[in-house]
Specification:
Family: Belongs to the bacterial solute-binding protein 3 family.
Strand content: 15-25%
Distance between the termini: 33 Å
Protein name: ABC transporter substrate-binding protein
Keywords: Signal, Transport
Organism: Streptomyces olivochromogenes
GO cellular component, one term: extracellular region
Structural class: alpha/beta
Radius of gyration: 19 Å
CATH class of the largest domain: Alpha Beta
Order of helices and strands: HHEEEEHEHEHEEEHEHEHEEHH
Bound molecules: glutamic acid
Number of domains: 2
Number of helices: 10
CATH architecture of the largest domain: 3-Layer(aba) Sandwich
Shape: globular
Length: about 300
């Protein structure tokens, strides 16, 4: 059930603005808008790149640019600056390096914000060419879309208020109000493995976080990579607790039948991991939250469907 009403959103926005302003004014507080543009890597655009066997790539070539689906409210991963409309974060950098590898100047990308529950439809109806936004690869989703990668390994975790004493892990969620995004794997895992929790779903995790700050829910659950970003923005108010209790390998979602695009993206990821671009991108974005660059997971080049 999605319970995003305009009134709730307005309250959430006010709380968020108040907190962000407070955090911005504090000395030593983490940057609220992600990396400075000058610190981001520059990706060499492949010259004369051709991928005629990919209908998605061919359509993009005729159009002249890529449409890429992303998130816009996930700090250090995919975040849109409301003033400039600029997107930044690790997922955005992955999208930019993939664009360069496919022969499209990253400055021409049209980013489209797509919520977790709408990713498969957006890929199926051609609204986007591919999707880079904390998108877990799994067998259920593979029935609907294809996945290049993985390019990062996250794990489900819990975000609570700083003064929370009772919640240390998913075993403590019975009778608690737990918020997650509709259509996400963390939402599904709570539903099946921790049925005594009271689940609340919104379109986005940022609305869940606003609800946590206003005592309307007791915890927010999703990937640790996402939660660490929210906690880093208001470290006096929020904390991530417990150990990750799942594996969430992040893939690049592609239209299911476009194996040529999927394999080209696998090649591109491998090359960008090898030449240091992946690590530079991580350090300029997700790395700002304080976690050093991990070794990227092995690419799973599964057979054409
Ligand atoms: N990685 C999880 C998923 O793909 C949670 C994050 C998200 O909703 O994007 O469902």
């Amino acid at each position: 059930m999605i319970r995003t009403t305009p009134a709730r959103l307005a309250v959430a926005a006010l709380v968020c603005i108040a907190l962000l302003t407070a955090a911005c004014g504090k000395e030593g507080s983490p940057p609220t808008k992600g990396p400075a543009a000058g610190k981001l890597p520059h990706y060499q655009v492949a010259e004369g790149f051709e991928l005629p066997s990919s209908p998605t790539w061919e359509r993009a070539r005729k159009r002249g640019y890529l449409n890429i689906g992303v998130k816009e409210d996930q700090p250090y991963l995919g975040e849109k600056d409301p003033a400039s409309g600029t997107y930044s974060g690790f997922d955005i950098e992955i999208a930019r390096m993939m664009s360069a590898s496919l022969g499209f100047d990253p400055s021409t990308i049209r980013f489209k914000t797509i919520a977790s529950a709408n990713r498969e439809t957006a890929l199926q109806n051609g609204q986007i060419d591919f999707y880079v936004g904390t998108y877990t690869i799994n067998d259920n989703r593979k029935k609907l879309v294809g996945f290049a990668g993985p390019y990062y390994m996250a794990g489900q975790s819990l975000l609570v208020r700083k003064n929370e004493k009772d919640i240390h892990g998913p075993q403590d969620l019975a009778g608690k109000r737990v918020c997650s995004a509709a259509g996400s794997t963390p939402y599904q895992r709570i539903q099946t493995d921790y049925p005594r929790a009271t689940l609340v779903a919104y379109d986005t995790y940022s609305v869940c976080v606003d609800n946590l700050l206003t005592y309307q829910v007791d915890a927010v659950t999703t990937d640790d990579a996402i939660l660490i970003g929210y906690a880093a923005k208001v470290p006096d108010e929020l904390k991530v607790v417990g150990r990750p209790f799942s594996k969430e390998p992040y893939g690049i979602g592609v239209p299911r039948d476009d194996n040529a695009l999927r394999f080209a993206l696998d090649d591109a990821l491998e090359a960008r991991e090898k030449n240091g671009d992946w690590k530079r991108a991580y350090e300029a974005t997700l790395g700002l939250s304080g976690v050093p660059a991990p070794t990227p997971p092995a690419i799973d080049r599964y057979p054409a469907s």
